[in-house]
Amino acid sequence: MTGLLLDWYDAHRRFLPWREDPTPYHVWVSEIMLQQTRVDTVIPYYERFMKELPDVRTLAEVPEERLLKLWEGLGYYSRVRNMQKAAIQIMQDHNGVIPSDPARLEKLSGIGAYTAAAIASIAYQVRIPSVDGNLLRVYARLAAYREDIRTAAAKKLAENAFLSVLPKDRPGDMNQALMDIGATICLPNGAPLCNDCPFAGFCETKKKGLQDEIPKAREKSEKLVDHKTVFLILADDLVLLHRRDRKGLLAGLYEFPNTEGTLKKEEAVRYCSSFGFDVSDIKPAGPARHVFSHRIWEMTGYEVRILNSIPPVLPEGYLFVPIRTLIDEIAIPAAFFAYSRLIIPVLSE
Q1: Is 213 a catalytic residue?
Q2: Which pLDDT does position 104 carry in this prediction?
């Protein structure tokens, strides 16, 4: 199995920027970016990130606002905040060198068992399987495992199975080969491409014709739906922002002012007037929808122009910033991208 898979990998592997120079730092950053994010989405982010923050020291020292701006659009901002915390730990406790021991890696902020195993095996050639959702799916189909694959028991079985075939000389390539099988052949959605799979001859699921039944996973709970009204409040070349609380969803990030419910135009004017603004013009900015891991935002937007009589005192957490500053320096969550895109044409007016 090992030789067969590595031969397949050598011939068919995906060429990805972090694979071409698999330093511990490159592997770490790529693995954090790839969590719940598609490879083709990650590549330009990774390249931009590496250009500005090429090593652990620069990551540890970059101002948070700049760090968040580099991450803008990837979501799950706690991931990059934890990366910076881990970089500081590495500088302070490990003389700037990312550890090779998986147990020591797991003590760093934001690094769990999978990421620790990926860094150790790919960058340091430590013989340890890095089991994520892709590898769990591959294991379930190879073994015709009919139970829920999202359990600790299933993960342990998969780890033991892959460890038994993990080579001493190329454990990182073996893990990446399994990742590629899961991403390109043993697909998560739709039928697996069994005719292209190097495991086709000894896959129990294929032998039994159970591709539509395996893997089995818990049914996802229905997402909560929140209805919101979002405001682009503009005063000449300024836009109003609000900074969210440091805890909870989108913690500490800037957002456009918003309120619960779907407001009609007259209600939207009253909302703006509650800040003390004189509204000179208001028009719909369109609907938008954003899906989080456990909830959905259904949004209605308004573009609001106010007169230059900006109140001297705004509620706590609200501030006006130049539109150019927003575009160049401030990270806006992807949930609001449908509205932030409307701001760019304002600069040319």
Answers
A1: no
A2: 98
Q: What is the pLDDT of residues 124-166, one digit of tens each?
A: 999 999 999 999 999 999 999 999 998 999 999 999 999 999 9
- 316-349 exposure pattern, b = at least 16 Cβ within 10 A, e = fewer: eeeeeeebeebeeebbbbbbbebbbeebeeeeee
Could you say which of 20, 31, 65, 222 is catalytic?
A: 31
Residues 280-331: tens digit of each pLDDT: 999 999 999 999 988 999 999 999 999 866 666 889 999 999 999 999 999 9
- How far is 56 from 24, CA to CA, in rounded Å? 10
Which positions of the chain have pLDDT values less than 70?
A: 218, 308-312, 345-349
Class of domain 2-208: mainly alpha
Residue 256, both tokens: 């456009």
What are the domain boundaries of the chain? Answer: 2-208, 224-348
**Domain 224-348, CATH:** 3.90.79.10
pTM here is: 0.89
